[in-house]
């Protein structure tokens, strides 16, 4: 049984899911951090659901939504797109499952930005878009990065929702964690052992890279 | 150079109800709004910058109508050409001194580059003797230097009026006296209209020409300093 395909597929899915979540999570987090409405708590709870619902429940929702006869799936079908049993389906599952991690981290980071700095930028003539890109986003970047790393780790290990929507097709949608399950089910102890070691090493490597990437705020004079 | 202000704003939360009703007019270059904390000084400045919207009234700086509830005018803070020195300076901690000073010179979505700086910014850096710390971050410079950076940053945007919120309260007492005379000298050199709010009588003494006393959200007394 190949090690490389499931490993590379897991990495590919996790990278895509994290990239998508960086866009979605940061946009939603920024919007929510500025939104004053009694509905905010309700929306916040709904967005946190993926964190507490069993992944199989999320996978089931995705199947209902995106399946050929699903509400959204039927519409996608007309464009010739069907994410069920594809690696893109795995990306959707991982994105959904990891979304709250990045959204919550980004929102806390945006709420921690001193509003006075944003006011200062406005008085200096910056339009709202520039205030976001030049003040809010850079000052929140540390928290966002931390959230992105958590989201990446979560996406890398995703199992339940991925199995529901992308299935277990060796060489097509079988990610590392799904491959381990399949090997154990098939009584392939040697294969399972190898895959488990590979998964563990990958996680350690990711953590090491994460430590290197984490922005270091102790600035040193350049002069 | 004229500043003409007359506005009302009711501020209410669960703990406090505060009615701000401020009206004054000044052609002086050194206007000081003096009063205890909680009298509405900072709120008045915020209304001039556009960060606080009055319920009604009119704010005119240098013949530019910034706010007029009768005419339905309420210009955005971005276009008011008002310089604002925040009480704790509000320097951008992720940008160097040079980047902070040139911050308002461009309004695109990218911050000024760390390696180069516009000619005009370099002039302000020189004028405020910040050359030695131009590549430093705000956390690495002294309180007096921070204030100069904040002043340079506000002035580099070429405002019509400079508003200063308790400009010396964040400084050690020995430094205060020096920065007061620096500011007075700067004002004479640039011939710029300044509106300073303070609770410190020493600031009034050193910088006040037109002194307005504010209490409980209202102008309590209005006087021109002798010989000012």
User: What is the oligomeric state here?
Assistant: heterodimer
Strand proportion of chain A: under 5%
Distance linking N and C termini of chain B: 16 Å
Number of discrete helical segments of chain B = 6
Strand order of the largest sheet of chain B: 7-8-9-3-10-11
Query: What percentage of amino acids of chain B are in beta strands?
Result: 25-35%
Cα shape of chain A: globular
Question: How much is the radius of gyration of chain B in Å?
Answer: 18 Å
Amount of helix of chain A: over 70%
Order of helices and strands of chain B: EEEHEEEEHHHEHEHEE
Counting DSSP E segments of at least 2 residues, the number of strands of chain A comes to 0
Q: Span between N and C termini of chain A? A: 56 Å
**What best-fitting shape of chain B do the alpha-carbon axes yield?**
globular
Account of the protein in words:
The complex is a heterodimer of chains A (223) and B (228). In chain A, 76% of the residues lie in helices and 0% in strands. Chain A has ten helices and no strands. Chain A starts with a helix and ends in a 10-residue tail after the last helix. Chain A has helices spanning 4-34, 40-52, 55-66, 71-78, 87-112, 115-123, 128-156, 160-166, 176-185, 189-213. Chain A is mostly helical. With 228 residues, chain B is an alpha/beta fold. Helix content of chain B is 27%, strand content 29%. Chain B has a six-stranded mixed beta sheet, with helices on both faces. In chain B, helix 5 (173-190) links the parallel strand 8 and strand 9 (193-198). In chain B, helix 3 (119-127) packs antiparallel against helix 4. Chain B starts with a strand and ends with a strand. The chains are: A mainly alpha (223), B alpha/beta (228). The A-B interface holds A 114, 116-117, 119-127, 129-130, 132-135, 138-139, 219, 221-223 and B 49-51, 76-80, 82-84, 86, 88, 90, 92-94, 96, 103-104, 107-111, 114, 132, 134-137, 139-140, 153-154, 157.
């Amino acid at each position: 049984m190949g090690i490389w395909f499931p490993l590379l597929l897991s990495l590919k899915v996790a990278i895509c899911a994290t990239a998508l979540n960086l866009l979605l999570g940061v946009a939603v987090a920024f919007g929510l951090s500025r939104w004053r409405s009694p509905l905010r708590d309700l929306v916040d709870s709904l967005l946190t659901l993926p964190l507490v619902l069993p992944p199989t429940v999320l996978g089931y929702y995705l199947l209902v939504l995106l399946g050929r006869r699903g509400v959204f799936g039927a519409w996608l079908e007309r464009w010739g797109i069907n994410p069920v049993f594809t690696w893109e389906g795995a990306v959707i599952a991982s994105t959904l499952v990891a979304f709250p991690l990045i959204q919550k981290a980004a929102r806390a980071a945006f709420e921690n930005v001193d509003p006075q700095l944003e006011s200062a930028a406005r008085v200096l003539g910056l339009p709202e878009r520039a205030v976001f890109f030049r003040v809010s986003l850079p000052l929140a970047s540390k928290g966002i990065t931390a959230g992105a790393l958590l989201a990446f780790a979560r996406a890398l290990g995703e199992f339940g929702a991925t199995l529901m929507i992308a299935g277990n097709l060796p060489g097509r949608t079988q990610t590392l964690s799904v491959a381990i399950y399949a090997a154990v089910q098939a009584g392939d102890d040697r294969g399972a052992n190898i895959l488990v070691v590979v998964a563990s090493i990958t996680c350690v490597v990711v953590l090491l890279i994460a430590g290197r990437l984490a922005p270091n705020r102790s600035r040193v004079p350049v002069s | 150079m004229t500043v003409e202000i007359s506005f009302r704003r009711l501020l209410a939360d669960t703990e406090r109800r505060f009615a701000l009703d401020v009206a004054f007019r000044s052609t002086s270059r050194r206007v000081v709004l003096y009063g205890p904390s909680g009298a509405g000084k900072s709120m008045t400045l915020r209304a001039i910058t556009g960060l606080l919207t009055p319920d009604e009234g009119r704010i005119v700086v240098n013949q530019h109508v910034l706010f007029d509830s009768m005419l339905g005018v309420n210009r955005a803070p971005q276009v008011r050409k008002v310089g604002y020195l925040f009480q704790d300076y509000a320097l951008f901690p992720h940008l160097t001194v040079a980047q902070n000073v040139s911050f308002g010179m461009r309004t695109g979505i990218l911050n000024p580059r760390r390696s180069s700086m516009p000619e005009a910014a370099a002039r302000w850096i020189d004028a405020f003797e910040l050359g030695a710390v131009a590549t430093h971050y705000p956390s690495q410079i002294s309180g007096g230097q921070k204030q100069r950076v904040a002043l340079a940053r506000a002035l580099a945007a070429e405002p019509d009026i400079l508003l200063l919120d308790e400009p010396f309260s964040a400084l050690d007492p020995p430094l205060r006296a020096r920065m007061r005379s620096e500011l007075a000298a700067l004002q004479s050199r640039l011939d710029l209209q300044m509106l300073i709010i303070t609770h410190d009588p020493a600031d009034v003494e050193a910088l006040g020409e037109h002194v307005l006393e504010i209490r409980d959200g209202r102008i309590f007394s209005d006087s021109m300093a002798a010989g000012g």
